Amino acid sequence: HHRAMSALPKVYVTRRIPPDGLDILRKSGQVQFELWDSDDPVPRVELLNKVKGCDGILCVLTEKIDAQLLDVAGPNLKVLSTMSVGYDHLSLEELKKSLLIWACIFCRGIRVGYTPEVLTDAVAELTVALLLATSRRLIEATHEAKTGGWGTWRTMWLCGHELANSTVGILGLGRIGVAIAERLKPFKVKKFIYTDVEPRTELANMINAEYVSLDELAKQSDFLAICCALTPETHGICNWNLFSKMKKNAIFINTSRGGVVNQEDLYEALSTGLIAGAGLDVTTPEPLPTHHPLYTLKNCVILPHIASASYTTRNAMSALAANNLLAGLRGEAMPKELKL
Ligand code: DGY
């Protein structure tokens, strides 16, 4: 029995993941896994210690998967499965890299699984909620009601901006951008526009969106939703140059990654009235320290990275991450494998 156990591939799971994924790993009988059984991230030193000699790693977005970690893990590592659709925490170059070790060429060739699609609905829903909360000033309004600011009904008090007849811009049109547009359409949006590295005709046709330049996106959008991946190309793309071209009434919504935004520039844009408001589900860093200036702005709504946080979706992500891992270790195609 012991010999059979030790022959099973060794896996490290870097966090207490939702039950569906853990059940799949347990019932598979295919792996022996150790779990960082906590709601908080595993300390880096512990992580480096635990991945040594592993065949597979199942991680979440707080773990930096870089050269150091891969070197420590060693040549057994075949599969990395992240419980996220975002993969900016993985250094893909390192995962596929060839190394020269003891005069031998050694290709890491680590396969990567991620969790697209299963979270699209939850993220789109939250994005719409955040957009409306920001444009109709809901957080400010509940605060006023609770703290005595509600004197009487006033004609211009807490006025915001409405979706009806508006132009909605999407920066980075993928599954999530489409899902957001589909949900916003019944609010009588006049026009959808988007930009990306190149036109996404098939997706754009689903929502009747027009391809424009980044400049035009900034100039025309009444609402701008950021739905791109964080890459070297999109890092800091939402900066003064972009904000300064936007409309005064514009609402900026980010549910992708904090790194796409230059937060100093956003602070300037919000505090000087260059744009009307911002709703952020993602920031740099995370958590955003409570003393951060963005919290002082009434026109900035900040959420603690909860876009995919529904019971159904987090379990689906957990299950998919587990199934990706197991398929990868069997040498089969993963349900959702990242093309490296
Ligand atoms: C992701 O999956 O990348 C989100 O940021 C967390 O669900």
TrEMBL record:
It comes from the Eukaryota. The keyword Electron transport does not apply. One of its GO terms (cellular component) is cytosol. The keyword Oxidoreductase applies. Residues 128-307 form the D-isomer specific 2-hydroxyacid dehydrogenase NAD-binding domain. InterPro entries: D-isomer_2-hydroxyacid_DH, D-isomer_2_OHA_DH_cat_dom, D-isomer_DH_CS, D-isomer_DH_CS1, D-isomer_DH_NAD-bd, NAD(P)-bd_dom_sf. PROSITE patterns: D_2_HYDROXYACID_DH_1, D_2_HYDROXYACID_DH_3. This is Glyoxylate reductase/hydroxypyruvate reductase. It comes from Danio rerio.
